[in-house]
Amino acid sequence: MGVPSPTAGSAPLRSAESAGPGVNDVSDAITEEIRGILATYAQLVVDVAAVDDGDDLFDAGLNSTATVSIMLALEQIFDVEFPEHLLRRSTFTSIATIRAAVAELGVQGAVA
């Protein structure tokens, strides 16, 4: 399994600007990007569309091997690098925790 390719036409969603109009649209787009990554790499036993943002992804079949692929895809698509303190199971427990980690890494609009 190599490094995942970013979604066609997507660009890193990073900005130094403060949150303003359209933040919910950006947050929704980031959540959908995360869901797309999960659909491709998570190997869940359920359809990712059936997973709520707070549902435990490990209960839905996520494993540590898939977590590495997810992290690499997130790094490439959002142009970030996960520091050691975020390389924990708890970072990848749910869509909400992944979105919070992406927000911590400076992706504009990725509010938890």
Shape: globular
> How many separate structural domains?
1
Write down the Rg: 13 Å
> N-to-C SSE series?
HHH
Please provide a written account of the structure.
With 112 residues, the chain is mostly helical. It has a single domain (23-104), classed as Non-ribosomal Peptide Synthetase Peptidyl Carrier Protein, Chain A, CATH 1.10.1200.10. It has helices at 23-41, 64-78, 95-104. α1 (23-41) packs across α2 and α1 (23-41) packs across α3. The chain is globular. The chain starts with 22 loop residues before the first helix and ends in an 8-residue tail after the last helix. Mean pLDDT is 83; it is low at 1-21.
Question: How would you describe this structure in keywords?
Answer:
disordered N terminus; single chain; 39% helix; 112 residues; 3 helices; Non-ribosomal Peptide Synthetase Peptidyl Carrier Protein, Chain A; mainly alpha
